Amino acid sequence: SSKKLGLGTGAERVNMDRITNNLKLTDYFQAMVCAEDVAAHKPEPDTFLQVAQRLEVEPKRCLVFEDTPFGIQAAHNAGMDCVVVKNFQLAEFLPLA
C-alpha cells in the first residue's frame, strides 16, 4: 500500500499555503493542518492527531519528522514515533518510549 503524507504545522494558513505553493509541495500532501485548525498547539498532540485523522491512519502507524523540541514532544504525546531533523539531515530516530 502507498504511504500517505501529511503536514502538521504551527504556522498560520496564509504562511503554510505560501510556503507549500512556492516550493511546489502542496500536491505531495494528502492532508495539511495549520494553526487555525487546532485549539491546542505543540507540544499538545492535536496538530498531529488531526493530520492522522484526515489521513485516516492510526496515530501509532504514523512517523513524524520534526525539527523542534516542542514538535518532538507533540509527536510522542500523539502516540507517534519521531525522526529528528537537524540541518536538513535526518539526525536521530526517537521511537515512542
How would the global form be characterised?
globular
Compute the average pLDDT. Answer: 96
Helix content: 25-40%
Which sequence of strands runs across the widest sheet?
Answer: 3-4-5
User: What's the total count of β strands?
Assistant: 5
**Radius of gyration from the CA trace?**
13 Å
Encode the helix/strand succession as letters. Answer: EHEHEHEE
- Structural class, from secondary structure content? alpha/beta
Folded structure, characterized:
It is a single chain. The protein is α/β, with parallel strands linked by helices. It has helices at 13-22, 46-55, 69-77; strands at residues 6-8, 31-33, 63-66, 81-86, 89-94. The strands form two sheets. It has a three-stranded mixed beta sheet with strand order 3-4-5, covered by helices on one side. The protein has a two-stranded parallel ribbon with strand order 1-2. Helix 3 (69-77) links the parallel strand 3 and strand 4. The longest helix has 10 residues, at 13-22.
Please write out the topology.
Elements: E1 6-8, H1 13-22, E2 31-33, H2 46-55, E3 63-66, H3 69-77, E4 81-86, E5 89-94
Essential attributes:
alpha/beta, globular, 97 residues, single chain, two-stranded parallel ribbon
TL;DR of this structure?
The protein is of the alpha/beta class and 97 residues long. It contains 3 helices and 5 strands, in the order E-H-E-H-E-H-E-E. The longest helix is centred in the first third of the chain and has 10 residues, at 13-22.
